[in-house]
Amino acid sequence: MDTMNDRLREVLKSVVVYHIRLGVPIGSRTITKLSEIGLSPATIRNVMADLEELGYLMHPHTSAGRVPTEKGYRFYVDQLLGDLLEPVQPINWPSRPEGPADMLHNASRLLSHMTNYAGVALAPKPAQRTFKQIEFVGLRPRQVLAIFVSEEGLLHQTLFELDRDVTVNELSAMSEYLNQRFGGLPLHKVKAQILEDMRAVKERYDWLLRHALQLGQQAIDTAAEGELYLEGTTNILTQANFDDLDELKRLFKAFEEKYQLLKILEQCAETPGVQVYIGSENAALGTRTCSLVASTYECDGRPIGSVGVIGPTRMDYSTVIPLVQSIAQQLSRFFGEWREGPAR
Amino acid sequence: MDTMNDRLREVLKSVVVYHIRLGVPIGSRTITKLSEIGLSPATIRNVMADLEELGYLMHPHTSAGRVPTEKGYRFYVDQLLGDLLEPVQPINWPSRPEGPADMLHNASRLLSHMTNYAGVALAPKPAQRTFKQIEFVGLRPRQVLAIFVSEEGLLHQTLFELDRDVTVNELSAMSEYLNQRFGGLPLHKVKAQILEDMRAVKERYDWLLRHALQLGQQAIDTAAEGELYLEGTTNILTQANFDDLDELKRLFKAFEEKYQLLKILEQCAETPGVQVYIGSENAALGTRTCSLVASTYECDGRPIGSVGVIGPTRMDYSTVIPLVQSIAQQLSRFFGEWREGPAR
DNA sequence: TTTAGCACTCATAATAATAGAGTGCTAAGC
DNA sequence: GCTTAGCACTCTATTATTATGAGTGCTAAA
Predict the structure, then answer these.
(1) Which of A56, A111, A239, B106 has a CA 20 to 30 Å removed from the CA of B132?
(2) How far apart are CA B108 and CA B229, in angstroms?
(3) Which DSSP string corresponds to B251-318?
(4) Dihedral sign, Cα of residue A165, residue A168, residue A170, residue A175
């Protein structure tokens, strides 16, 4: 009995489902009564004992029912969830997004509202982006605002202080140069190219050229910080069990700093499709009692970013997973269409 | 005995100070022992009874010491704090801010780190700002990015979709028109003027002019949403008393939505100087157990925005108030210098 | 006016008793 | 051989009971 036969699967499934639904340890009687498994409590107890031995269930204490272990959740998510996945309810996007940034913001908000957990969206990874256009706007005598636009439609602005005045013409000469030279190239190539150009130009005394390259480089570097949209963290306060206060604090710390979350989502953006990280798999977030359901979204067939939901380990995977998947698909479509050309 | 004599003041002060320091109800013995008031517990008890009758102190229960009421805190802050205000420790600003937005962000972060409460900064109120410059960048055939810059150095970008293509020349014609016409005017005047111009132009069929006005209007309207920098909310989790969970949730909800907080700070920006809002005076934030210490910062002698700290009612006012004041002064200086001209 | 003394109150902590949920095991039933 | 009824057992959660002690309010004396 060290492999999972049908009955073991069935009972495990019931325990997980009812525990998610009821939020309490599940006893043998509960299963005979609620499920259609047609076995007596005694039999269920035997099966549960087996499941516990195999590491899928655990006992909070002697006279309590069973609770899924992380291994139990993992098995449930990977193997048992198939026929339980709920159809996605129609998604009510707010009116026309103003652009990709707005779209991602909406996505995280929708995820949060529809699940009552926290919703999160990672903007296309900088390395994945394509240089489209850079523009310089003179704000004051020696101060320049650089606006960097990627092919994906994401904007980044950086403020510069120069060591001498620049005319409008010089500024547009600079941007024209950069746009001509780098337009259409992926960012990582642009970076390398700029470094090379800088070396080449070093000898010549061409103030404009040198500073154009410098500004371009810095603008791109600044844009390279990942962007994260995080909404509905308050929901976690409502859902969380307050018996572990430290854990809660660590989680909120991670929310506030965003950095860890960003790393995790970036890593998740490596492999396409929906992924579920359960409990201590999210240790980097400072929590062992939360799960992350995340999916990549794509453009041009390649994953460029990810969206997801953070909730308690006993979150309702059967609705969250399809929802995240659906939102990701709609993001993919959006970025696809965006790339195609201007809307309408 | 319905006015506050010296002894009443002295005892009230002790209760507040020790309660802030120790976090527990203060009994008569504690005061005789810790303070240099030189009176026996019995006497203190009499005084405390008076203070309670006057509404400055309260009893959690019969056999507990006294705790300040809101009225007590109010009196303490307004009348007793004078000689207790701690000198501000030197403030360690991070390296040169990139601009006003960065500066405000730094301010809220500093406040949060130095107090271990939440720090908040409100950007100059839109109505207070002055139109400096608007620039249009064409991103795609019918799509335009408007960058609006105020005299105070705050940037706002808005994305537009037009109903026909525009050339670079047309875009710069539009921005030049707007800049010439409105440069240097306070925003509220610009708004009115645009509306007027729009009526005037309505008759003529001048696509460019009409759309310039329209874009200008929308860009300004978008910029008119207040900007709020909020940091260190996690600290509240650590400080808060968890006996009122609902309260905590409401507070974090308010943090997440920012809107209420924005309103309060905007209102606070009306009157110059440091202000303290105690307990239920912050009901709009969903909390009755927090205080807000806020101060306006100025430019050109007029208050333009505000910064502050949100913490528990029993926060350490004697260090927080001078700190907020100092940060506000430094913001004022920054905005003053910024207005003067480019740095260095 | 101040203070020592003392009875009184009430929250908090510790202890004990009870109820109930759920288990594991055994032996009987199909 | 698998299933199940029965039962003793375990352990939590609830409630009741009883200290403990901090701090008060009042009174009477200094």
Answers:
(1) B106
(2) 6
(3) HHHHHHH-HHHHHHHHHHTTS-SEEEEEGGGGGGGT-SSEEEEEEEEEETTEEEEEEEEEEETT--HH
(4) positive
Separation of alpha carbons A119 and A320, rounded Å: 11
- How far, CA to CA in Å, does A16 sit from each of A20, A145, A160, B226? 6, 55, 56, 46
B95, B104, B237: best to mutate for the A interface, most A CBs within 10 A: B237
Does the beta carbon of B124 lie under 8 angstroms from any beta carbon of chain A? no
Using CA atoms, how far apart are residues B175 and B192, in angstroms rounded to an integer?
18
Interface test with A, best of B234, B253, B261, B339 (most A CBs within 10 A): B234
**pTM assigned to the model:** 0.92
Name the closest nucleotide to B40, judged by C1' and CA: C3
Q: Which of B153, B233, B249 has the CB atom closest to A256's CB atom?
A: B233
Stretches where chain A sits below pLDDT 70 are: 1-2, 224, 226, 241-242, 342-344
Which residues of chain B fall short of a pLDDT of 70? 1-2, 224, 226, 242, 342-344
In window 13-52 of B, residues with CB < 7 A from nucleic chain D are 25, 27-30, 41-42, 45, 48-49, 52
In sequence order, the β-bridge partners of residue B255 are none
CB count, 10 Å around CB of A60? 11
What is the nearest CA distance from B161 to chain A, expressed in angstroms? 8
Q: How far is the CA of A316 from the C1' of D11 (A)?
A: 30
Asked if B137 and B149 count as a contact pair (C-beta separation under 8 A), the reply is no
Report CA torsion sign: A222, A226, A229, A233. Answer: negative
Q: Is A5 helix (H, G, I), strand (E, B) or coil?
A: coil
The rounded distance, in Å, linking the Cα atoms of A291 and A66 is 20
What does A322-341 look like in DSSP terms, one character per residue?
HHHHHHHHHHHHHHHHHHH-
Q: Which of A131, A141, A135 is nearest to A161 (CA)?
A: A141
- At A298, which helix (H) or strand (E)? strand A290-299
Residue A344 has what pLDDT? 45
- The whole-number Å distance from A38's CA to D6's C1' is 20
